[in-house]
Amino acid sequence: MLSIVAFLALLLLSVLPAPAAETSCGLCHREATQGVHAALACADCHGGGPEQRAVELASLGMALRCQQCHEGTLGVLHGSMATRQAERAFVERSWGRADADFYGKNCGSCHVRDCLDCHGLDGHAIARPEKEDCHTCHRGYYVGADYYGYAPREDAERYQRGPGYGGEHYLKMSPDVHAQAGMVCGDCHGMAGLADGKRADVGCRDCHEPDPAIIEHGIAAHLEKLECYACHSGWAAQEYGTFFIRFTNGVIPEYFRLRKDQTAPDYLRSAYLRLQDLPPLGLNERGLVSPIRPQFLAYFSEIDGETTKGEENRQLAAEWKAFFPHTVQRGTPLCDACHDRPARFLLEKPEDRVYLPDKDGLGLVSFWNQAGQKVVNGAFVDQVRYERLSRRDANYVKAYVEKWKQLAESVENSSSP
Question: Residues of the signal sequence (predicted)?
Fold first, then answer.
């Protein structure tokens, strides 16, 4: 009797249809897809189906699986955020000369490996990146956190206080006007542009038309030879002298009271000087006047116990970079913030020097002297050009007087009852 029942059960199972893919997936995998992909079936991303048990896309990388639907986005993983070629090249010609493993130890954590790095760590809850996702990497001394008005603090442990953001403490500064208006990173840095190798999808003048009624906009040279953000950047974080100290025995003496969460376990990092004010100016790769700042003025020391091995504070690079501070403000500095300020073009006069890095054995006459330094994606403004732009001819005097008249009138109007 039992054999007849078993036979009938097997016969019944043989004529029933195979279970649907979703039903069979759910027998083992208790995953609930959320967000924009909530309506998709498992097989839409993982392959397989009622007649095909093999997960045909499992052998592909995450990015290639996403590409089945999101065509044209793979370029992001071949762009600068993924390859970090510029950063790797800099390390090779600087700290990498002292430690061949420096990049892997101290720099390798911030680069895009696959789609989930930006779109959520859980493949079943994929979402559009939020600002916090961008600032996982775009923080500290790198452009990103400055957009919301955060500037890096000193590295000493006693300064690790104040506003916190993304696990770090910052000085609170004026945020970018676009941030105040509610704009987020993706409004200018869209997927299409990033996949095409662009830094941004739009430029300033795609949204803003220069107003000739504004004195600065009425000067042709300003519109032809300057980036908009050369005048409209309210401030920029600047780091003069970046020191990496390696401890060969792995023991860091307690009297080095520095942050230990931004380097490899056998390293410490500190800076000679940090500023948060108007950035110096130079020329970018388009030949336009642009903010510049030290990419890194790189120094290296190696300590074994209580003894320094080799040269202390060995200078390995003195490189600057043209960049776009994300600290745009409506107003601009006054005329003499550029036209009568040689140090802002790294043409500091000897009698104006305050910091003396050469006396500290750092190999530079001044941080704001072009000697021994270079701009890797542009150039410094030379003395001849600086003197030409600083001439106080009749046009300059006229614009200068008009500017002060406007300021005086605005003060009078604001003070009137």
Answer: 1-20
Domain ranges of the chain: 13-59, 76-203+223-381
332-379 pLDDT, tens digit each: 888 888 888 999 999 999 999 999 999 999 999 999 999 999 999 999
Q: Which pTM value belongs to this model?
A: 0.85
- CB contact at 8 A, 289 and 283: yes
Burial grade of 260 (CB within 10 A; 0-12, 13-18, 19 or more):
middle
CB 231 within 8 Å of CB 219:
no
Burial class (CB in 10 A: 0-12, 13-18, 19+), 75: middle
